[in-house]
Amino acid sequence: MKRLILLSLVTALLYQSCDRARYHVFRSYITEYCYSEDIDLATTKAGNIIIHSNGVIKRYSWKDKGEEKKKYEEFCRNHNDLTYNKKREYRHSPEWGVCSAVDFIEIDIVSNNNFDSEHPAGTSLKDIVRFVSVSPKKFIDSGYKETFNWRRNRPEIFKKDSMILSLFQRETENYFPINRLLKDMGRDEMQMLPANTHGILFFDKKPTADKEHKLKVTIYIGNNRKLVNYITKKFK
């Protein structure tokens, strides 16, 4: 009988220990920021342009200690993500709230060839190219209350390229669509982007002149920094 009681107590203690290990009060919704010094371009099967991280990726998460934890907390402060305060279950690592630490401020794109009568070589194509992605920024800014109904309101452009699926994670309702012409993008509309595929560039028009264009894509990321990449695109 004593052995049975002791076994029950040990089992209960082990269960409680495991239970505590599976739960944590998360102060911030974003659980991990991924930082890459290098951003590259690629083309999807549908012919659209992917902006994605490249090279070594540094990760800063809620589980870190020391300088890495301080950096993670700095990213959370910068994005006003400090009052989530929810106790949530996890096992090895949370499967939500992973994003890029690199926020875009502005994107410009020009071609080496004449695009049409309104866009000669070397002039900005920001009025005919749109940036498509997702971000939890609106969810966080709303005090973690506002969500997006993808089943009812999914923008049509999100159905036009199978690569768009790589933008989504779990809890998609907490991620809002980004779908704007580059000329209309505000300074804070490209924050907390997906960690790997940051976004996809779509052309609203096709060229009337040359069909092959070497495109120069300039991404401004703050602190007077900019990333410049080139990619050749053949329009059908």
Question: What does this protein structure show overall?
Answer:
The chain has a six-stranded mixed sheet. The chain has a three-stranded antiparallel sheet with strand order 6-10-11, with no helix packed on it. The protein has a two-stranded antiparallel sheet with strand order 1-4. The model is unreliable at 4-20 (pLDDT under 50). The chain has four helices and eleven strands; from the N terminus they run H-E-E-E-H-E-E-E-E-H-H-E-E-E-E. It is α+β, with helices and mostly antiparallel strands. The radius of gyration is 22 Å and the shape is elongated. The longest helix is centred in the first third of the chain and has 21 residues, at 2-22.
- Strand coverage percent: 35-45%
What is the helix fraction of residues, given as a range?
Answer: 10-25%
Radius of gyration: 22 Å
Cα-to-Cα separation, first versus last residue: 81 Å
What would the average pLDDT be, to the nearest integer?
A: 89
Determine the oligomeric state from the structure. Answer: single chain
Order of helices and strands: HEEEHEEEEHHEEEE
Broad structural category? alpha+beta
Major sheet: size, sense and barrel closure? Answer: 6 strands, mixed
In the predicted model, the low-confidence regions spanning at least 5 consecutive residues are: 4-20
